[in-house]
Structures are given as C-alpha cells and as structure tokens.
Amino acid sequence: MDSVDLDVLKSVLAWRRAGRTVNLVTVVETWGSAPRPPGALLAIRDDGQIVGSVSGGCVEDDLIDRCRNSPLLDRPQMVAYGVTTEQAARFGLPCGGALKLVQEPVTDVTWVEDILARSDRHELAQRTLDLATGKVTIGPASRSDKTSFDGNLLKVTYGPLWRMLIIGAGQLSRYLAEMAMALDYQVIVCDPREEYRADWNVPGSQLVTTMPDDTVVQLNLDAHSAVVAVTHDPKLDDMALMEALKSPAFYIGALGSRVNTAKRKERLREFDLSEDEINRLHGPIGLRIGSRTPPEIAVSILAEVTAVKNKFPLDKVSDKATGNFEVTA
After folding, report:
1. Any long-range contacts for 44-47 (C-beta under 8 Å, 24+ apart)?
2. Cα dihedral sign for 40, 181, 17, 128?
3. Cα–Cα distances in Å, from 102 out to 33, 63, 111, 128?
4. Mean pLDDT of the chain
5. Most CB atoms within 10 A, among 1, 230, 265, 308?
6. Residues spanned by CATH 3.40.50.720 within the chain?
C-alpha cells in the first residue's frame, strides 16, 4: 500500500467517526494502460468529497454521481469501466484501458483501525473481503503477496511493501528518507556515529546505531529491499555493501564519483565477493539529471531505485555514465 492509499484509509476512519457515510472503491483488475494498479483505493463521502484515485481522474466523476444519487449499498458490488471501445472513449481511459472495481459501503471501521495500527508498527496485513456477505477479515501478509480477486474474495495487502536501508544519517539522508516513505518504503537509517544521529528527526523512519554490516545481516534483506550508502566513509559504506551485495536486495548503491566508485570496487574485491556480486553495485548513484542540492540528489537516487524496482532499462531513462556530481573527498 502506498502513502496515498494510507491517507485514504485515514480519511475513511475520520469521516465515519464524524458520522458520515462512506463508499470505498478498490481497483481489482486492469487491462491496457489503466493508470492505477490493483489494490489502489478511492474513498467517496456522502457529499461527494473524495480522497485517493482509481483511474487518475477518468472515472471518478461517474463514481461520485453513483454514490450521491443512489442509496448506500447493503453489500459490495462490482463496477466495470472501459470494457468496450465506446466506454473507454466516454470515460477517457488511455489507450483503451479498462478497469474492474469493487465498491463497498464502510459501516464497521474496526478493520480500518486494525490496518492503520499495523502500518504504524511497520507490519504487513492482508485484508480479505467476501463480496457475497461483505465480511472483512484481517490477517498477516508477506511482501510477496499480491492483490487477488476470484470473483468473490478480494485479497489486498496493506502496509510498507518495500524496505530501504540508508547508511548514514546526514542531510541527504533526511530528504532521501522522507521521499522514500512517500513511495511506500519502510525506511531504516543506520549510523553508529553519535555526532550524525544526534539530530535525526524524520517521523516514520527507524534509526539504528549498530554497525552497518551487522545491520544488513540482522535485516535479512529480501528482493523487496534496497540499500543506499551515503556516508562517503569507506569504513561504514563498504562494510554494509560487502554484506548487501551477497543478499537478494533488488537495489544496492553507494554515493561517490566514478573514480571513487572504481576504488570502492577494488576494495570490495579483497573480500569474499564474486565479480558478479560486485557488478551489482550501482555507482555513481542516481540518474544523471544535473542534481546539485541534497533534495535534487535524493530525487535522482530514488528515480534510479524506482527504475530498477520496476525493471525499466536504465539506458532508456538517461545517460548516467557520469552520475550526478563528482565527490572528490
């Protein structure tokens, strides 16, 4: 669940506590170029106010009209858009995209409270909705669970599906952590240096003070994990990298110039790492977008992480041969 959908559930809870009626709409299947993925949420209040999105604006107006002009449903129902060429043209779905949605009345908010509490604890939860009865059950989930729908049971995973370990608690890390959390990452920041971590204050992130290599091992990184080393201190960055490169983490990168990246790879060859493992290292880190300030550099790093996560070829994004900037220290 991304941060947008988390805001949807928070609004659902606030509206119901205020006595308003609420419809929740979930994307369950898409075809073509539908702009929102399965599991995306839209909440519609009785007066037509909305939070979230299921189509990027294409069908929201029609859904609002449905909710405002019809009595509150007594059980969930299916809603489909863009199944025909005429519907796709009417609702402005791009490239003939199509959506299948589940619209449900929210009467009991116990499950919403449960999911939000689990999310605050950085836990994953799977919500199962029985369309025949409207019954909702909540259980544990794993990062490999995906939204599924068999025509009656809708299963959606909520919580931080991705993890990012940031080595270093400096200024760049602050922007990186804030942006990463907005992109659905559970963020862990590791820095054993007291002078750097003393002023760390990024709500929602987790700060640990263990040594970087120990932290990597303890986290048991999986294919939904990313490691970004930004201290530019070999004693810290390299320790994390030598363990991370042996893990299934989908992205491992380190701050530095081309020259320093080459030197880092030479140092890593002194450890028990294969050439294939060393070549997994992204460096110079980030896409080449002319970044100079810490926020811009954070954007470039997360752009590269996003491309790798989505399996989008980096050579189609930009020429990143020289990275963003040269760090000479």
Report:
1. 45/15, 45/20, 45/21, 46/20, 46/21, 46/22, 47/20
2. positive
3. 19, 11, 17, 13
4. 87
5. 230
6. 162-316
The string of pLDDT tens digits covering residues 15-53 is 999 999 999 999 998 876 556 788 999 999 999 999 998
CATH superfamily, region 162-316: NAD(P)-binding Rossmann-like Domain (3.40.50.720)
- CA dist 163 and 221 (Å) reads 9
Instruction: With beta carbons less than 8 A apart as the criterion, state whether 181 and 159 touch.
Output: no
> Distance from CA of residue 155 to its chain's centroid?
18
Q: Could you check whether the bond before residue 284 is cis, i.e. omega within 30 degrees of 0?
A: yes
Mean of pLDDT values over 247-257: 94
Query: At which residue do the structure tokens 């070829």 appear?
Result: 313
Which pTM does this prediction carry? 0.70
Q: What is the tens place of the pLDDT at every residue in 96-142?
A: 567 899 999 999 999 999 999 988 777 889 999 999 999 999 999 88
Contact 317, 307 (CB under 8 A): yes
pLDDT above 80 (res 229): yes
Maximum CA pair distance of the chain? 70
**Two tokens, residue 32:** 């073509």
